Description:
By secondary structure, this protein is mainly beta. It has a single domain (48-268), classed as YVTN repeat-like/Quinoprotein amine dehydrogenase (Methylamine Dehydrogenase, Chain H). It has strands spanning 12-15, 30-31, 37-38, 43-46, 53-57, 60-65, 71-78, 84-91, 98-100, 103-104, 119-122, 130-132, 137-141, 147-154, 157-165, 192-197, 203-208, 213-218, 224-228, 233-239, 244-249, 255-259, 264-268. This is 40-residue YVTN family beta-propeller repeat protein. It comes from mine drainage metagenome.
Amino acid sequence: MSSKPIALTVASLLLLARGASAASAQPTPAELPSGRLLAPVGVLVSTPNFPTQVVVAEGHVAVLNGGANKRQSLRLYAADDLHTLAVISTLLGKSHATAAPGANVAQGRSGELSAPVSAVIPNQSLFQGLSTGANGMLYATGGASDDLLAFAMHGGTLTLQRRYALHWQAFPRTQYPYQYAGNQQQTRHFYPDSVVIGPGGTHAYVTGLLANSLARVNLVSGAVRYLNVGSYPFAVALADGGKRLVVSDWGGNGVSVIDRAAWKVLGEV
């Protein structure tokens, strides 16, 4: 199984913003953990440490931050000049020893930047799944909180609309990692990781990192169906015009292909 990405001490969001003048002074190139140099063009704006996901929709840029800290956030920026519009802050409870499977929670400063906090959600985790839906909705995965959060984006604001609970699912003993890989002394976690919204915007598809499972969430009724996929399902994406789902098996050697309508695994590539 591949190692987790190296954490950046100072994280930056690099985006090409609309309307940026070609005559503007170019930011200084940054060195990535791999040693490669990145020379951004356009607007450069700093984020708190550990930005894990970014999406662009309806004139906004949304970013998840703080994947290895107890304090995490969802930030909304204006797409034209990247100024901060809204900040939803979350804070893990004392019972959470880790922010992500196999990663220690950072106890020091999380690199928070000075910006007005729109709301604080206590005892809530955020991981790295973020996706846009219909009618200005934004969906974020809750990691150790075992939920999917639905936020409304209106006029540069973020409002929590609903939480969808997700639960650990047993998987075959012949499937890696052969047994639950989390803390055996605590409640077993589904650990929602990645999310994608299906065609029509009525269902969300969420990978369960510690359950070897994919969840289909009815965004209207809240009903959830689960499907066993590969080991440590990580990212999920739509394919074949939305007829299929492709799930990366972080603990395996490929990706699982799912028939979205029949809700069954077609095979592994």
